[in-house]
Design brief:
Layout lengths: L1 H16 L9 E4 L8 E6 L5 E5 L3 E5 L7 E2 L10 E9 L5 E8 L2 E7 L7 E6 L4 E6 L5 E8 L2 E7 L26 E4 L2 E5 L5 E4 L7 E3 L9 E4 L7 E4 L3 E4 L7 E2 L9 E7 L5 E6 L2 E6 L6 E5 L5 E6 L11 E5 L4 E5 L5 E5 L7 E2 L10 E8 L14 E7 L5 E9 L3 E8 L6 E10 L6 E11 L2
Antiparallel strand pairs: 1-27, 2-3, 3-4, 4-5, 6-7, 7-8, 8-9, 10-11, 11-12, 13-14, 14-15, 15-16, 17-18, 18-19, 19-20, 21-22, 22-23, 23-24, 25-26, 26-27, 28-33, 29-30, 30-33, 31-32, 31-34, 34-35
Length: 453
C-alpha cells in the first residue's frame, strides 16, 4: 500500500515537472441555457465553484464544475441593475462574492456572504462606473472605476469588501478617459488596468503610484491578462493584440494574431499549461506560449463572447477549466478532457465518419473511432462543431445507453463502451450529429457489434 502511494506521488510530481512542455487536450462545450439576457462577466474560483453575472441583475452559480447552475439573481439587487463584473472572494464556509454594475448614471457594488442567498449594497456613487473588482486573498480587495472629477475611481478594501476606501490611491485622468468592464488584473502588489486613451496603467505598490504603458497606434486597452510571477509576460487588446515581456513597461503589436474584429477578453495559464486564449466575436483563439501560432480553438453556435475566466486555484484537470460567457445568455465551458472520450488528433477531418468497433466480437468492452468535421453551412474560416450524440441500442431497437451528447469541435476521437451489465447478443451504435442552432441533422450513421460472453 505504501509503495503504491509513493508511486502515485512520483507520477504526480513527474507530471508537474514536465507540465511546462505539456499541451492539454482542451474541449469546449455549450452548457444548458438558463437565461437569455447578456452575460457580461465570469469568476472561476477553482473549476468547481464559479459565478457569472449579466443584465437585469442576473447572477448564476455552479458548485459542481458547471454541470448544474443555480439562479441567485436579484435577492437584494434591483432588477434594473446591469451587472458588468463579478469576483468570487472566498468559498469557505460559504461563498463571499462581489458584483458591480450600474443603473442609469449610478454605479453600485453588491456583496453576498451566504453564497448568493442575499446581496447587500456596499458601495454606490453617482458616476465613475466601477469596471472591475479583484481580491488577492479573503480580505484584501481593489476595484477600479471611471474618472470622477478628473481622477480615476480607485478603491481598496481590507475586510472582504464590506467597506471601501480611496485613501492613498489618487491618480489623475483626462475628463474623457474611461476604462472597460473586466479590464483589470492584480497579482500581489501589482495592478494593471486599461483605458481608452493611454493604454495600460500599472502599479507595483498596490496603487500608491502608477506608470503608463502605451499601445501604439492602438489607444484602447479593452482586455488584459498577465502571466504568473515574475509577471513579465502579458497581453492587452482592443481591435489589435499587444504583448509585453517586461510587465507592461513596453507593449508591441503581435502580428501573429489571427481573426478579425474586436478582442473582448483574454485569459491564460503559465503555471501548468502554457496556453493563452482570446476571443473575437463568437470565436476563441489560442496558442502555446512557448511554441506554435495562434489558431481557432472553438466557435460558438451563436452570440459574442464578453468575458472568460480561468480557474484561479490550481484545479486544472477535467471540466470547468475555463468558463466563457456571451451576449445571448450562453455559457461555454473548457475541459481538459471529456468523460469517456479521447482526442486522437486535432486535425480537422474532411467528413464525418463512424468506424467499426474493435474488438468485435468483444467481452465486455469495445471501442470505436469517430471523426467530426466543421458544420457544412459555416462560412470560410469558421470552425464550428456539431452536437454529437452516440447511443447504443439492443437488437429490438431499444436505446440502452447514451455515451455522449455534446457539442464537439472538429477532430478525431475515440470512445469506449462497457457491456458488462448486458447479456450477450447483437447491439447497434448510432452517431447522430445535429446543428446546435435549430437541431438540423447533418450526419446519421449506425453500425452493428456483437457482445459475446
Amino acid at each position: 500500500m505504501k509503495k503504491s502511494v509513493l508511486c502515485i506521488l512520483f507520477l504526480f510530481l513527474l507530471l508537474l515537472i514536465n507540465s511546462n512542455s505539456a499541451s492539454p487536450q482542451v474541449f469546449w462545450e455549450e452548457l444548458p441555457q438558463m437565461v437569455t439576457v447578456p452575460l457580461n462577466s465570469a469568476s472561476n474560483y477553482d473549476c468547481s465553484i464559479a459565478y457569472v453575472c449579466g443584465d437585469s441583475a442576473t447572477v448564476l452559480k455552479t458548485t459542481n464544475r458547471g454541470y448544474n447552475w443555480t439562479n441567485v439573481s436579484k435577492n437584494g439587487i434591483p432588477p434594473n441593475v446591469q451587472l458588468v463584473n463579478i469576483f468570487v472572494v472566498s468559498v469557505s464556509p460559504m461563498h463571499t462574492v462581489i458584483a458591480s454594475g450600474h443603473w442609469g448614471t449610478y454605479t453600485y457594488v453588491y456583496r453576498t456572504t451566504n453564497s448568493g442567498a442575499n446581496w447587500t449594497q456596499v458601495f454606490s456613487q453617482s458616476s465613475g462606473l466601477i469596471n472591475a473588482v479583484w481580491f488577492t486573498d479573503a480580505n484584501s480587495g481593489f476595484m477600479q472605476g471611471n474618472n470622477v472629477g478628473g481622477r480615476w475611481s480607485l478603491w481598496k478594501s481590507t475586510n472582504a469588501g464590506l467597506n471601501w476606501d480611496s485613501t492613498g490611491l489618487y491618480r489623475s485622468s483626462y475628463t474623457t478617459e474611461f476604462g472597460f468592464a473586466n479590464c483589470l488584473w492584480k497579482s500581489g502588489a501589482n495592478i494593471w488596468f486599461g483605458s481608452n486613451m493611454s493604454g495600460v496603467y500599472h502599479s507595483t505598490n498596490n496603487g500608491s503610484t502608477w506608470t503608463i504603458g502605451t499601445l501604439v497606434p492602438e489607444s484602447n486597452s479593452v482586455a488584459i491578462w498577465m502571466g504568473g510571477s515574475p509577471y513579465n509576460l502579458g497581453y492587452s487588446a482592443a481591435n489589435t493584440l499587444y504583448k509585453t515581456t517586461n510587465a507592461g513597461v513596453n507593449w508591441t503589436l503581435d502580428l501573429s494574431a489571427v481573426g478579425s474584429g474586436a478582442i473582448k477578453t483574454i485569459t491564460g495559464s503559465t503555471e501548468i499549461f502554457n496556453y493563452v486564449f482570446y476571443t473575437r466575436g463568437g470565436t476563441i483563439y489560442y496558442k502555446n506560449i512557448n511554441v506554435g501560432n495562434w489558431n481557432v480553438q472553438y466557435t460558438a453556435p451563436a452570440g459574442t463572447y464578453n468575458h472568460m475566466s480561468l480557474a484561479r486555484v490550481s484545479m486544472y484537470y477535467g471540466p470547468g477549466w475555463i468558463y466563457a460567457v456571451r451576449n445571448n445568455g450562453r455559457i461555454s465551458r473548457a475541459n481538459t478532457y471529456v468523460e469517456g472520450v479521447r482526442l486522437i488528433s486535432n486535425n480537422v477531418p474532411d467528413s464525418y465518419t463512424l468506424s467499426q468497433n474493435y474488438p468485435n466480437p468483444f467481452n465486455p468492452s469495445t471501442k470505436f473511432k469517430f471523426d467530426t468535421r466543421r458544420l457544412p453551412e459555416m462560412s470560410t474560416g469558421e470552425i464550428r462543431g456539431g452536437n454529437v450524440r452516440i447511443s447504443v441500442y439492443d437488437n429490438l431497437g431499444r436505446e440502452t445507453e447514451t455515451l455522449i451528447n455534446k457539442v464537439l469541435q472538429p477532430a478525431e476521437y475515440e470512445i469506449d463502451w462497457n457491456g458488462s451489465k448486458y447479456p450477450s447478443g447483437v447491439y447497434f451504435y448510432r452517431m447522430l450529429v445535429t446543428n446546435p442552432n435549430g437541431g438540423v441533422v447533418v450526419f446519421d450513421a449506425v453500425k452493428k457489434m456483437v457482445l459475446m460472453k
